[in-house]
Amino acid sequence: MNKRQFLSSSLAGLGLLSTGGKITALEYYPLAANKKWAIVYGTWCGSTRDAALWISEGMGGIAQVFDVRETPDPAPYENIVIGGAIRGGQVSEELQKYIAENKSKLKAKLRGLFVVCGNMMKPVTAEQKAEMIDRRLAKQCDVKDLPSQAFLGRITYSLMDEASRETLQSFKMPEYDNLKRPECMAFGKDLLAAVNK
Ligand SMILES: Cc1cc2nc3c(=O)[nH]c(=O)nc-3n(C[C@H](O)[C@H](O)[C@H](O)COP(=O)(O)O)c2cc1C
Fold it and tell me: For position 11, what pLDDT does the model report?
């Protein structure tokens, strides 16, 4: 094997290939037949990415999962789920901007919304969920009464920018992991069942 073959097989092994100069992750569909679903998430530290992947796993892995920074075009998809990590009661500016810029394309395709929050490690009440989803995220998307879920997330200090770390540590917030894969998968199953019924 020469040097060029070695490098390209190593990149393929890592799931990375170059397309026109841009390094991109390979698409991953456990069930390749259905490419109708997309889940678009906004995250700072990754727990919302994991929630989105586990929601897709609950659907049998049929949804393509995008970080909103990839600005996926909603056009090829029939069913779209939007989810965001919460800071200061809101999803990220990138997610809000994506929603605002794609509102007309997204509106008829949205099948579910979710947020991932810390909520001081306490269970999310119906009122808190309504505040984060019904009165904010759903409003930004201009939709009502979609299936929705508020998951508890994680705090991992090593993944945080310095200012955020200092703010949270000043509250004596410990690191925690409250995100539950079975809860995310159950939401994915419910979303799929609602569309297939
Ligand atoms: C700077 C900062 C602000 C936060 N603000 C809130 C908040 O207003 N409400 C809340 O419930 N959780 C809040 N959290 C907790 C996050 O929502 C939680 O850590 C979540 O898992 C982050 O998702 P991510 O890992 O996808 O970024 C905050 C966390 C940080 C670091």
Answer: 44
Q: In the CATH hierarchy, which fold is given to the domain comprising 26-192? A: Rossmann fold (3.40.50)
Of 192, 184, 186, 190, whose CA–CA distance to 41 is shortest? 184
Residues with CB under 6 A from ligand 1: 43-48, 85-89, 116-119, 153-155, 160, 164, 167-168
> Per-residue confidence at 39, pLDDT binned at 50, 70, 90?
very high
Determine the average pLDDT of the residues in 39-59.
97
Atom of ligand 1 lying closest to residue 124 CA: 11
Give the mean model confidence (pLDDT) for residues 49-56: 97
Question: 197 falls in which pLDDT band (50, 70, 90)?
Answer: confident
Task: Output the six-digit token pair for 111.
Answer: 């099948």
Q: How far is the CA of 86 from the centre of ligand 1 (A)?
A: 5
> Does the model's pTM come out above 0.90?
no
- Cite the DSSP H helix spans in the chain: 3-13, 47-58, 93-107, 126-129, 138-141, 162-170, 181-196
Give the alpha-carbon dihedral of 111, 79, 29, 47, to 10 degrees: -40
Nearest Cα residue to atom 21 of ligand 1:
153
User: What residue ranges do the domains of the chain occupy?
Assistant: 26-192
Which atom of ligand 1 is nearest the CA belonging to 50?
26
From 184, 137, 160, select the one nearest 44 (Cα to Cα): 160
